[in-house]
From TrEMBL:
Function comment: Involved in targeting and insertion of nascent membrane proteins into the cytoplasmic membrane. Acts as a receptor for the complex formed by the signal recognition particle (SRP) and the ribosome-nascent chain (RNC). Interaction with SRP-RNC leads to the transfer of the RNC complex to the Sec translocase for insertion into the membrane, the hydrolysis of GTP by both Ffh and FtsY, and the dissociation of the SRP-FtsY complex into the individual components.
Keyword Cytoplasm: yes
Enzyme type, top EC level: hydrolase
Its membrane topology: Peripheral membrane protein
Origin: domain of life: Bacteria
Reaction equations catalysed: GTP + H2O = GDP + phosphate + H(+)
Protein name: Signal recognition particle receptor FtsY
Domain SRP54-type proteins GTP-binding: 328-341
Subunit architecture: Part of the signal recognition particle protein translocation system, which is composed of SRP and FtsY. SRP is a ribonucleoprotein composed of Ffh and a 4.5S RNA molecule.
Predominant place of localization: membrane
EC annotation from Swiss-Prot or TrEMBL: 3.6.5.4
NCBIfam families, per the entry: ftsY
Length: 355
C-alpha cells in the first residue's frame, strides 16, 4: 500500500506517524510503510516512528499555512492579551471563534471545555488559557487526521466531487503529483463533461504529471467513468482518479447524476469506488459544512480535500466539520502550485490557527 506523507524514517516505533511521508520506492525496503508496493512485491509490515524534527520541506509548507491563516490567528490571539481570565474574555473568544467560521456547535464545545479545564487546573493567566485552547482544538480535530492509503485494491478507484469553483480539478492535479511522486501509476478520468474546458484542464494536469487520461468530448460522465475503471484494470494501474462534474447540493437532479456515476463505477468493479472525496473551498465558511453533509448523504464520503487556505479563508470551518460531520481531511491546500497541497495534521493546524 501507499500512504502519502513526506519523510522517510527508520523502523523503531510501534505506530505510523500521520504527519510523516512515505519513502520513495528506490529506498531500502525497511524504510517503507507497511504493505508498500515495490514493483509487484509487497513489503512485510513494519512500524515507522514519528520523526523527531519537522523536515525542512514540511516546515516550509507549514510557514505558508501559518501565513494563510494569519488574519484569523491574530484575531483569536488578541483575545488573550489581557491579564486575567474573566467572563469578558470568554465572550470575546466566543465571538472570535464564530467569526473564524468555527460554527455554534464547535464554539460551544471548545469554550465549555476551557471553562472546565480552568476550573479544574486553577490557571489564571490568559496565555495559559490559550495553550489549553490549542490542546482542545487539536483533540477536536484529531478524528479528521487520517492518511489516504492505496494499494489494498488494484486499481484503487477514487471518485472526486465538488461544486464548481472549489478547486476540484486543480486538487486532482496536485493529488496526482503526490501519487506519481510515490511511484503509483495513475489513470485520470475526465468525467466532468458538463463544464466548459474541464476536459482540457485535466489533460494539462495529466501532461504535467506524465500520466494517462481517459476522456470523451461531450461524453456521458458515467460512461467515461466506466471506461476509465475498465481501462485501469486492464492496464494494471495502481489508481484510477475520476474527476466528476461540479454539483451544487441544492440541484437534486444533478446530485442524482453523481449517484448514477457511483453506481456505474460499481458495475465496472464491484468493490469500487474505494474512496469518495469531496473538495471544499475553505472560503465558504458554514456553507462548506452544508456541502459536506449533502454530499455525504448522497454519496457516502470517505475523505475531504480543503482548498484555498491562503489568506482569505478563516480556517475555523474544520472545527465545525469535526463537530458536526467528522469526515477525514486527507489534504489541505494553501495555493495553486503543485507543492501547495499537503497532508492534514490536527496539531499543526491548531497551532497555525491559534498561534
Amino acid at each position: 500500500m501507499f500512504s502519502f506523507f513526506k519523510k522517510k524514517t527508520p523502523p523503531s516505533a510501534p505506530a505510523v506517524a500521520p504527519a510523516a511521508a512515505p519513502a520513495p520506492f528506490d529506498a531500502p525496503a525497511e524504510a517503507l510503510p507497511a504493505g508498500s508496493l515495490i514493483g509487484s512485491a509487497l513489503v512485510a509490515p513494519i512500524a515507522i516512528p514519528e520523526p523527531s524534527a519537522t523536515p525542512p520541506e514540511r516546515q516550509k509548507w507549514l510557514d505558508k499555512l501559518k501565513a494563510g491563516l494569519g488574519k484569523t490567528a491574530s484575531s483569536i490571539s488578541g483575545v488573550f492579551g489581557g491579564s486575567q481570565i474573566d467572563e469578558a474574555l470568554y465572550e470575546d473568544l466566543e465571538g472570535a471563534l464564530l467569526m473564524a467560521d468555527a460554527g455554534v456547535a464547535a464554539t460551544e464545545h471548545l469554550t465549555n471545555a476551557l471553562r472546565k479545564k480552568v476550573k479544574a487546573s486553577g490557571v489564571t493567566h490568559p496565555i495559559a488559557l490559550k495553550n489549553i485552547l490549542i490542546a482542545e482544538l487539536t483533540e477536536l480535530l484529531q478524528p479528521l487526521q487520517k492518511p489516504l492509503v492505496i494499494g489494498q485494491q488494484q486499481p484503487t478507484v477514487i471518485m472526486v466531487a465538488g461544486v464548481n469553483g472549489a478547486g476540484k480539478t486543480t486538487s486532482i492535479g496536485k493529488l496526482t503529483k503526490h501519487l506519481a511522486d510515490s511511484n503509483a501509476s495513475v489513470l485520470l478520468a475526465a468525467a466532468d463533461t458538463f463544464r466548459a474546458a474541464a476536459r482540457e484542464q485535466l489533460t494539462v494536469w495529466a501532461d504535467r504529471n506524465t500520466v494517462e487520461i481517459v476522456s470523451q468530448e461531450g461524453g456521458d460522465p458515467a460512461a467515461v467513468s466506466f471506461d476509465a475503471v475498465t481501462a485501469g484494470k486492464a492496464r494494471k494501474k495502481d489508481v484510477v482518479l475520476i474527476d466528476t462534474a461540479g454539483r451544487l447540493p441544492t440541484q437534486l437532479h444533478l446530485m442524482e447524476e453523481l449517484k448514477k456515476i457511483k453506481r456505474v463505477i460499481a458495475k465496472a468493479d464491484g468493490t469500487a469506488p474505494h474512496e469518495v472525496l469531496l473538495v471544499i473551498d475553505g472560503n465558504t465558511g458554514q456553507n462548506a459544512v452544508a456541502q459536506v453533509k449533502a454530499f455525504d448523504d448522497a454519496l457516502g464520503l470517505t475523505g475531504l480535500i480543503v482548498t484555498k487556505l491562503d489568506g482569505t479563508a478563516k480556517g475555523g470551518v474544520l472545527a465545525a466539520i469535526a463537530r458536526e460531520r467528522p469526515i477525514p481531511v486527507y489534504f489541505i491546500g494553501v495555493g495553486e502550485k503543485l507543492d501547495e497541497l499537503e497532508t492534514f495534521n490536527a496539531r499543526e493546524f491548531a497551532q497555525a490557527l491559534l498561534a
